[in-house]
Design brief:
Strand order of the largest sheet of chain B: 7-6-5-11-22
Largest sheet of chain A: 2 strands, antiparallel
Shape of chain A: elongated
Number of domains of chain B: 4
Largest interface: A-B, 24 and 27 residues
Oligomer: heterodimer
Structural class of chain A: mainly alpha
Structural class of chain B: alpha/beta
Shape of chain B: elongated
Number of strands of chain A: 3
CATH superfamily of the largest domain in chain B: FAD/NAD(P)-binding domain
Radius of gyration of chain A: 23 Å
């Protein structure tokens, strides 16, 4: 029968949604309150009502839907849901499953999404860094840990090439490659599966610029009501990251092009930028944690997947700040180990980015780009 | 035995009556025109002091007053305070109808109060003290049907000390409730499936010394009247006759005939079954496809299979949503990898069953969506395709299933069986079954369980579509009504809605012309006829609405305190002044309001309670029911010079509110005949009009009455006034 969709419910998929943090999905009775109270949703075929039903029935094409990414989890739907079905949380679970679906290798994606594997995931950078320290002779089985004497200069213990660039540059490219592969497949699926075909062909760049503008200004995120302040906090976080990315690139250039070694002068532009970036990051993440907890009852607590990223970001910021402070007040015994933890958490953040919620950066961008290009109410 | 009547009038001055009316001139009217000399006033007639005073007056060794007019508040209040033993009491309402709705101390108010006293003095002279109708009364309760409702009714009656005969047509008790594999939860937290609760009831009934259970038994005939119902049953082919007092009809339902649902695939494949067949399947263990015995992996439930469908059953069958949610759990519990899809129009799980809906819905393998089913067809691989439109999942979709369950609804057995087989002139079954889609229902807002056959009460799915717990509760309610009926019959009183009434119709048969209008019009089939065709009353079937009294062209039907003559005498007692100046705004027209005691009278009382103003030219006379309206009253009133009659009755038609089902409709029918006559006599038919009024419409009443009086003004004074 042409033109008719065959519906085959998939119990396993439903169970996966439930395990991914959408444990309330079955409570939905399709009253559509969620779509009515949702501000970011387009008027035609609005979310999250249809996603709730698709998830309930185990219709797995839902993870290939751009709409799950157009949701910023304002949680207005969760607040107003008369059945406690928490559509916001379910959408979050679907996004997690989308990230998993497009990540390579899938086994690693599964591990990242499952808290039982967290020790293994942390152990990887720890062992890698320890191996490099051993390799560079900074620690030894017999000699133990020797804290370098004199002013604290982290490259004394963590030589820039072997412990930073040799690890982080490949890690960065690995993550970029995995994300790139995933996002390209996602883009292909979007165009293949969805009725909203991309209409404005050829103007990819123009649309991408508009999309990035939306993202940088958090225009759509600001439509949220219940968790409106989250968009502000997230903005601090995003600009914190942008500043720190500039600092990192600048540092890389200093090191390899200008041959200007760190540490830098306290009030040099790069240091000031780093301080502002770190402050923004820490301010953002601290408030995100605080408000998530305060709103947990009405807006949902979030899943392991959410909290993993939150705490990793927090760890990156906190260990970075502490490394700096310990260096300034000169406590080598604390400074060097803290820096070790900083490297570990930074590695964790970047290396696992294609599998953690960090990947939302690219998937949401692509989905928003697609929505814009297909005339999906943008 | 006739006693000499000694009259007394008691006037209450409380609640503002004393301030609104001149009692001196009132007393003069009572003495001179009412011709009652024994008059007492009291500041508070409902006080213990006033009561002691009256009790003293009615002592046979003293004044021996035995026929009282108490002019005070509405007879609907202070009922016990103003009720006196073994004497006739007529309540004349001068509080709500005069003091509270008129300007105090004005000539029109005074005239109104005096007219009320004239009317009630006339009335008390014609009324007599009721004597209850005495007949033998068997208090046994017959329960027809041994399902959830019937068992519950039988137990309720038996536990209250009544003998019960329970008649079940099948070999086993329990009905469909006992054919279930599991029952939906009926107690908190409403989440776990339970053993059918009816088994416990069956055990209790079977062990109850007061209940006689007859299985494989059918009712051949029920004849006679409440308290004396001769019942013939066939038990296992053997006929048996016994007497009962009242009946609970809990005959139950049959599932809707699924062979009519070919569009939904019934008959297409063995794997399309009904929800009743699903219960049998579940009882066998794992849910297997009937066609090949393989485990069912994906089961689709089609809701409203026949129900809420104008081509099949116009109503919601009430239980099917819960049944399918329950059977979806059978599927899930039988096979953890199986899925159950429920395709519904709406999920209807009223009350606490919502909790069960939530529970079933939370199972990961229970999928639900709204869907309009287009049809069920065979898929190539032995599976079934369900084509649906307007689903939540898409406009046109196909659900693939390996087993399809049709959630077929229920059809009350009264739809095509009379069940009761009454030997009544008006027919063997209940009247107007079709109005309620075959259900033995009534206007249930006011009268649950009631049928138009006195002392026969409907319970369970024969009454309305309902679930097992509801049917059990319904059985209890109907049993209590049956108990009430036999007890009232034993006392010689009417049953609901005139439960206190000890009067009964006492026709003057010598003047009967056997026109059969009464036998036809009696809403309760209380009037039979003998072999000569002469009507006679089966008093215990009668509800005392007096429709027969209104119907009778010979005016021969009377009650001790209610007759054509009594109301006629009231009408004739009025003072009708002459019209001198038609342009005077207070021109003394006289209008009679004949009001239904059941809704219009309470509405008028409410007008009084709210201190709204009524036109002082209207005098109200309560009627038991508009069905008792006799056309002779119109000529009585018009010949007396009354300018108009306004009739305030209940709503009639399909959603009637008449407490006696047909009264206001019959009244309207009689009026339609009357208008022709009035027109012929040169009297405007506008002078006599009927309005439909509900208790809650009280606020509209003053306007309705004002408009009517205004219309009478336009028509002008009654030309007979001068004669």
């Amino acid at each position: 029968m042409a033109g008719e969709t065959v519906i085959k419910p998939d119990l396993q998929f439903v169970n996966r949604v439930i395990a991914a943090g959408g444990d309330t999905v079955k409570k939905c009775y399709q009253c559509d309150t969620c779509s009515v109270v949702c501000n970011p949703t387009p008027d035609s075929k609005p979310f999250p009502r249809k996603e709730m039903l698709q998830a309930q029935w185990g219709l797995k094409e839902v993870v290939q839907s751009p709409d799950i990414w157009l949701c910023h989890q304002c949680s207005d739907c969760t607040v107003y849901c008369p059945r406690g079905a928490k559509p916001g949380e379910v959408m979050g679970a679907l996004r997690k499953m989308c990230i998993e679906e497009y990540a390579t290798p899938p086994q690693l994606a599964k591990m990242v999404g499952d808290c039982r594997y967290l020790p293994v995931l942390i152990a990887f950078p720890v062992v890698l860094l320890l191996f490099m320290l051993k390799f560079t002779g900074m620690i030894g089985v017999g000699s133990g840990l020797s804290i370098p004497a004199g002013p604290i200069v982290y490259s004394k213990m963590f030589p820039t090439f072997w412990l930073i660039d040799a690890i982080f540059v490949p890690a960065f490219f690995f993550a970029a490659a995995v994300l790139g592969k995933g996002v390209l497949t996602f883009w292909k699926d979007l165009n293949a599966n969805n009725p909203w075909k991309v209409r404005v062909e050829g103007n990819l760049v123009g649309n991408l610029i508009e999309t990035l503008k939306d993202i940088l200004l958090h225009n759509r995120f600001r439509l949220c009501e219940t968790t409106y302040t989250r968009s502000t906090n997230h903005l601090f976080l995003v600009f914190g990251f942008i500043f720190l990315a500039i600092v990192t690139t600048w540092g890389f250039l200093n090191e390899w092009v200008l041959h200007h070694e760190s540490p830098y002068f306290m009030f040099s532009p790069i240091k000031l930028l780093a301080m502002v970036g770190t402050a923004g990051l820490l301010y953002g993440i601290y408030n995100i944690i605080k408000e998530r907890k305060a709103n947990a009852e009405k807006a949902g607590f979030g899943s392991y997947f959410d909290w993993l990223l939150i705490y990793v970001v927090f760890a990156v910021g906190a260990t970075g700040l502490l490394s700096w402070l310990f260096r300034l007040v000169h406590i080598p015994i604390l400074a060097y180990p803290t820096y070790f933890l900083h490297l570990t958490s930074v590695f964790f953040l970047f290396f696992y980015a294609p599998y953690t919620k960090m990947a939302h950066m690219v998937y949401r961008t692509v989905a928003m780009l697609y929505a814009r290009m297909s005339g999906r109410g943008f | 035995m006739e006693m000499e009547k000694k009259y007394g009038v008691y006037l209450c001055k409380g609640c503002g009556i004393g301030e609104a009316i001149n009692f001196e001139s009132l007393q003069k009217v009572i003495k001179k025109e009412g011709k009652i000399q024994f008059i007492k006033e009291h500041d508070i007639m409902c006080s213990p002091e006033a009561r002691a005073m009256v009790l003293e007056d009615i002592k046979p060794e003293g004044e021996g007053i035995n026929s009282l007019v108490i002019a005070a508040c509405s007879p609907r209040v202070k009922y016990e305070e103003l009720d006196f033993p073994n004497v006739l009491v007529e309540r004349c309402n001068i509080r709500e109808l005069v003091a509270w709705t008129q300007e105090p101390n004005n000539e029109h108010t005074q005239a109104l109060a005096e007219d009320y006293l004239r009317m009630y003095c006339a009335r008390v002279k014609k009324s007599e003290l009721p004597e209850p109708y005495q007949s033998e009364c068997d208090k046994t309760i017959l329960v027809i049907g041994g399902g959830a409702a019937g068992l519950s009714a039988a137990l309720e009656a038996a536990n209250n000390g009544y003998d019960v005969v329970l008649v079940e047509k099948e070999a086993e008790l329990g009905g469909y409730a006992a054919k279930l594999y599991r029952q939906t939860p009926s107690s908190f937290p409403f989440t776990t499936l339970q053993e059918p609760t009816v088994f416990k009831k069956i055990k209790e009934v079977q062990g109850h010394p007061k209940v006689r259970v007859l299985t494989k038994a059918t009712i051949e005939k029920i004849d006679g009247e409440p308290g004396l119902l001769d019942t013939t049953v066939t038990v296992n082919g053997v006929e048996e006759t016994f007497q009962v007092g009242a009946v609970v009809m809990a005959a139950g339902f049959r599932p809707y005939d699924a062979t009519k649902l070919t569009k939904l695939g019934y008959g297409l494949s063995k794997d399309v079954i009904t929800n009743v067949e699903m219960e049998e399947l579940a009882k066998k263990g794992k849910i297997m496809r009937p066609s090949d015995g393989q485990p069912a992996e994906n089961v689709a439930f089609i809701q409203c299979a026949g129900s809420r469908d104008p081509e099949h059953l116009p109503y919601c069958s009430d239980f099917c949503c819960q049944a399918s949610l329950k059977q979806a759990l059978y599927v899930r519990q039988s096979n953890p990898n199986a899925t159950a899809m429920i395709l519904y129009k709406d999920i209807r799980t009223p009350g606490q069953s919502e909790l069960f809906y939530k529970e079933a819905q939370s199972d990961p393998g229970v999928m639900l969506t709204k869907a309009e089913i287009e049809g069920v067809t065979l898929a190539g691989d032995g599976k079934l395709n369900i084509a649906a439109k307007d689903t939540l999942l898409g406009e046109n979709v196909i659900f693939e299933a390996d087993l399809v369950v049709l959630a077929t609804g229920l059809v009350p057995v009264t739809k095509d069986e009379t069940v009761l087989n009454l030997g009544y002139r008006q027919g063997p079954g209940l009247p107007e079954i079709e109005e309620y889609g075959g259900f033995a229902d009534s206007n249930f807002i006011c009268f649950p369980y009631e049928t138009r056959r006195t002392a026969i009460y409907a319970a369970g799915t024969v009454h309305q579509a309902m679930t097992i717990p509801m049917a059990m509760a319904d059985g209890i309610g109907a049993a209590l009504k049956a108990i009430q009926a036999v007890e009232h019959v034993a006392e010689g009183m009417a049953v609901h809605p005139r439960g206190w009434d000890e009067t009964f119709p006492d026709p003057f048969m010598q003047r009967c012309t056997s026109c059969k209008r009464c036998t036809e019009e009696c809403p309760f089939g209380a009037i039979e006829e003998n072999e000569k065709g002469t009507p006679f009353f089966k008093i215990n079937r009668c509800r005392r609405c007096a429709t027969c009294m209104g119907a009778c062209p010979e005016r021969i039907v009377s009650f001790k305190d209610y007759s054509v003559d009594i109301i006629g005498s009231m009408l004739k007692s009025l003072d009708v002044p002459e019209i001198e100046d038609e342009d005077d705004p207070n021109v003394p027209y006289r209008v009679i309001g004949l009001i239904c005691e059941n809704d219009a009278m309470p509405a008028l009382d409410a007008v009084g309670l709210h201190k709204l103003k009524l036109d002082p030219r209207v005098r109200f006379i309560p009627l038991r029911c508009m069905g008792s309206f006799n056309m002779v009253w119109v000529s009585d009133a018009l010949s007396r010079g009354v300018d108009g009659l306004i009739l305030l009755g209940c709503k009639y038609g399909d959603d009637y509110q008449c407490h006696f089902a047909k009264g206001s409709e019959l009244c309207n029918y009689r009026l339609s005949k009357l208008s022709e006559t009035l027109d012929k006599l040169g009297l405007e038919s506008d002078r006599v009009q009927q309005y439909q009024i509900a208790h809650s419409d009280f606020d509209k009443l003053p306007q309705i009455i004002d408009d009517f009086v205004a219309r009478i003004k336009e028509v002008g004074p009654n030309p007979f006034k001068e004669l």
